[in-house]
Design a protein that fits this description.
The complex is a heterodimer of chains A (507) and B (329). Chain A is an alpha/beta fold. Helices cover 33% and strands 24% of the residues of chain A. Chain A contains 18 helices and 22 strands. In chain A, a hairpin with a 2-residue loop joins strand 16 and strand 17. Chain B is mainly alpha-helical and 329 residues long. Chain B has a single domain, classed as Orthogonal Bundle (ABC transporter involved in vitamin B12 uptake, BtuC). The mean pLDDT of chain B is 90. Classes of the chains: A alpha/beta (507), B mainly alpha (329). At the A-B interface, strand 1, helix 10 and helix 11 of A face helix 8, helix 9 and helix 13 of B. The complex binds adenosine-5'-triphosphate and magnesium ion (MG). Adenosine-5'-triphosphate binds next to strand 2, helix 1 and helix 15 of chain A.
Chain lengths: 507, 329
């Protein structure tokens, strides 16, 4: 039998106050897709960073084709043909797409960058990942999902034998994810081995030849192709059973809390949207990436104020010109981009959790430290945030736990209207259920919830009603009784009669 | 805390070395002068610390010191204004300079470096203009007013040693600043936006208002510094009054633990940093025969301090990791 392509043996790694890996092993065969799953903080990203030379293990061995190798830097790993797509985006967003793809490996011509060739080759990789933008586009102009695709194109361009993807779909919509799966299958058929990390077990089941499960920095077990079922994966990850779908129990909603009339966002000024959310109602907002869902939430929250239209909150007109206004009116927004908008990475868990509610809890301008401490303790406990202490800087938490910190920060405000943009991005199954339960609880308490999600399961499972957007236009509204995957996808990809809205003259 | 300890040790070492190298260092006259200068520079350093905490920079401090330092005697002597009117005018002027900077930086999104660099050129130019580049001073008048800077408060039990009056100002400013930064929600807002302005704004913080406030504080304290400096030395020459003071202030803040990346800083650290800067300058004048290497030495010491700090930080991280490993395994 040929030796495994890549093997990790008894790797350990510690950080201050945390033992992230306590002797983890992993085996990757040629031409297979191996999924690595586990709860938030189980050590998946740490293991991958070690395999890609980003971090060095404290002990343990790595073998390639049966030979022990040392990976001291990313450069070493690339030399051996190992490439990693990080969980957090790592693009220079002031540079062009092509420049990012070939960063550090630019083609030269007479000592200068050969831009034409760069564009040409970038184009082929962009086509491969199904991203239709010009290679000269600046990365900062792309949406988060598109940026993720650029990362993947970049990894493809290294011509890796082993390609590691750490939660590549967490910011992709289902159709973009489908493109990615095509790319993955195509790579596998060409003999590339892939390591795939995701909290979306449906994807894992669909893609993987084998699954390795980590729990608390140790191997919890492996599953062969035939054994890969939702229940089996969850049992190994969590150590107990969890039902596959979250069954939301609708309860009669109250009076309309949030009423939006003819809201025009700066991004899509030609398509006014109108809708309402009642007290105790959970409304899902579906659509492809770029459909304008985030823009609607950001207009409601005053991040990029609406061009026109009216927003009524509990019967009074509000015109949020800033998040400050929106919060004062009783809204909260769990934003899409955790790293930039959600947390302050260098600050402690406690400081992040209290940041939005400092004003509410102030004592004549002074910090209420007792309240701050009890609040962070309460949130860490109820959201099960995995952290050595409340003083740990958020940057040292695993991605999913960072997301829980963002949620906690906004729950602490006790808003009347809760807006959530991809709230379970990067969160493990157990924690997802907790967040769904929390949303359910809040809605029972009368909070009006509007959430955006690219996970159809989530939209279907949680929503009392679903709004579907396509290219900035509200293409439909589905009541719970009419909800189905087909109905949502149909509206989201729009095969509809032409624009019902009299278009205002284009600028 | 560790940072303050480090720089305090450095201050102590430099003091000991200087006193060994020069007999006049420990003379009452020299020490008193040193302590007084420390207070004056401490005040302007605290000001710039607020701006540095937001991730910005204020290069105009020296010129604001010049503008106010020349403006006060000019108003009082040449223009014959009353003392309260003149003080009010220069204070209002320095605060509005800060407001002006803050508005340009937040509303027009101009880079702080550019805005305050232009301020540096502008305000000194204005001062040289209205004084016609002539020295302005109090002569032998305004003795009462000048005690604000030259006065001394005798300390009991300390054998005739007395506290220079500017220390009263410094202590009041420092206590207010420390309470503001560490105990109020606005201080927390400043630290948060210094690290990640976008996340701070998403959290409902009016970041523009906080940034403007920081520049107002910086210019305001530069103004207070300017008043005290000119009262202390009795006259001001517009060409070089307050020259390079912004750099002393920034260096003190950085030595005292403010990160130029924003979001970090303590007031006590800044005061110790200011003291260190003054002792260094003092050492150079006392020990060497040529003052012209002053900047070289100051630059070298600051660089060494920053490098040492970074190395210690890395070492501490590695130690912590090793300890965690030992504790568990
Ligand atoms: N640089 C670091 N410093 C300190 N602790 C760290 C660091 N990196 C990771 N950790 C800790 O190590 C543990 C494992 O983290 P890791 O990122 O590998 O988890 P993960 O399985 O990828 O989780 P997620 O699904 O949330 O992304 C976590 O407890 C995390 O807080
Ligand atoms: Mg991870």
């Amino acid at each position: 039998m040929t030796p495994p392509l890549l093997q990790a043996l008894r790797l350990t790694k510690s950080f201050p106050g945390v033992r992230a890996l306590k002797g983890v092993s992993l085996t990757l065969h040629p031409g297979e897709v191996l999924s690595v799953i586990g709860e938030n903080g189980a050590g998946k990203s740490t293991l991958m960073k070690i395999l890609a030379g980003v971090q060095t293990p404290d002990s343990g061995e790595i073998r390639l084709d049966g030979q022990p190798i040392e990976l001291r830097s990313v450069h070493d790993a690339q030399k051996y043909g190992i490439a990693l797509i990080h969980q957090e985006l790592n693009l220079a967003d002031n540079l062009e797409v092509a420049a990012n793809i070939f960063l550090g490996r630019e083609h030269l011509r007479w000592g200068l960058i050969d831009t034409q060739r760069l564009y040409r080759e970038a184009e082929t990789f962009l086509t491969a990942v199904g991203l239709e933008v010009h290679p000269a586009t600046r990365v900062s102009e792309l949406s988060l999902g598109q940026q993720q695709l650029v990362e993947i194109a970049k990894a493809l361009s290294v011509q890796a034998r082993v390609l590691i993807m750490d939660e590549p779909t967490s910011s992709l919509s289902s159709s973009e994810a489908a493109t990615l799966f095509r790319v993955i299958r195509d790579l596998r058929s060409r003999g590339v081995s892939l390591v795939y990390i995701s909290h979306r077990l449906g994807e894992v089941k669909e893609l993987s030849d084998r699954v390795t499960v980590l729990r608390d920095g140790e191997n919890a077990g492996d599953l062969e192709r035939a054994e890969i079922h939702h229940a089996a994966m969850v049992r190994l990850m969590v150590g107990r059973d969890l039902s596959q779908f979250y069954a939301h129990e609708p309860h009669p909603p109250g009076a309309p809390v949030l009423q939006v009339r003819d809201l025009r966002t700066p991004a899509n000024p030609r398509h006014p949207v109108s809708f309402e959310v009642r007290a105790g109602e959970i409304v899902g907002m579906a659509g492809l990436i770029g459909a304008g869902r985030t823009e609607v939430l950001e207009a409601l929250f005053g991040v990029t104020p609406a061009v026109s239209g009216s927003i009524r909150l509990g019967g009074t007109d509000v015109r949020p010109e800033s998040p400050e206004d929106a919060i004062a009116a009783g809204m909260a927004l769990v934003p899409e981009d955790r790293k930039h908008q959600g947390v302050i990475l260098e600050m402690a868990v406690r400081t992040n959790l209290s940041l939005a509610s400092l004003r509410q809890d102030q004592q004549h301008g002074f910090l209420n430290r007792t309240r701050e401490a009890s609040l962070s303790e309460e949130m860490i406990r109820s959201l099960r945030i995995k952290t050595p202490s409340e003083n740990q800087p958020v940057q040292f938490l695993s991605g999913g736990n960072q997301q829980k910190v963002v949620l906690g920060k906004w729950l602490a405000l006790r808003p009347k209207v809760l807006l959530l943009d991809e709230p379970t991005r990067g969160i493990d199954v157990g924690a997802k259920h907790e967040i769904y339960r929390l949303m359910e609880e809040l809605s029972r308490a009368g909070v009006a919830i509007l959430f955006v999600s690219s996970e159809l399961e989530e939209i279907l499972g949680l929503s009392d009603r679903v709004l579907v957007l396509h290219e900035g236009r509200l293409t439909g509204e589905l009541a719970r009784a009419d909800l189905s995957e087909e109905a949502v996808l149909h509206l989201a990809t729009d095969t509809l009669p032409p624009d019902p809205v009299p278009a205002s003259p284009a600028p | 805390m560790k940072k303050i300890l480090g720089i305090t040790t450095l201050l102590f070492v430099v003091c000991v070395l200087t006193s060994l190298a020069s007999d006049s260092f420990l003379s009452a006259y020299n020490l008193e002068n040193l302590v007084r200068r420390t207070a004056l520079f401490g005040i302007i350093s605290i000001g710039v610390a607020f701006v540095i905490v937001t991730g910005g920079i204020d290069l105009s401090i020296g010129s604001v010191v010049c503008l106010v330092g020349c403006g006060l005697p000019w108003l009082l002597t040449t223009q014959g204004w009353s003392v309260p009117a003149a003080l009010l005018a220069v204070t209002a002027l320095s605060l509005s300079i800060g407001l002006f900077h803050g508005l340009l930086i937040t509303k027009l999104k101009l880079p702080p470096f550019v805005v305050t660099l232009c301020g540096l050129l502008l305000y000194r130019g204005i001062a040289r203009g209205f004084t016609r580049d002539q020295t302005v001073g109090f002569g032998s008048d305004f003795k009462g007013l000048r005690t604000l800077a030259t006065g001394e408060i005798p300390l009991p039990f300390l054998g005739g040693f007395s506290l220079p009056a500017p220390w009263i100002f410094l202590l009041v400013v420092a206590v207010l600043a420390a309470v503001f930064l560490n105990r109020t929600i606005y201080g927390r807002y400043l630290l948060a936006l210094g690290r990640n302005e976008e996340a701070a704004r998403y959290s409902g913080i009016n970041t523009d208002r906080m940034v403007i406030l920081a520049y107002v504080i910086s210019s305001g304290l530069a103004g207070l510094g300017g008043i005290l400096f000119v009262l202390d030395v009795n006259s001001a020459q517009p060409v070089d009054f307050g020259n390079f003071y912004e750099l002393y202030a920034i260096a003190a803040a950085v030595l005292g633990g403010c990160s130029l990346r924003g979001g970090e800083g303590t007031i006590v650290g800044v005061i110790v940093g200011a003291a260190l800067m003054q002792v260094l300058r003092n050492m150079i004048t006392l020990v060497t025969t040529h003052n012209n290497i002053e900047f070289a030495i100051i630059g070298a010491v600051i660089l060494a301090g920053v490098i040492a700090d970074e190395l210690v930080k890395r070492y501490a991280i590695r130690r912590r990791a090793a300890r965690a490993l030992a504790a568990e395994g």
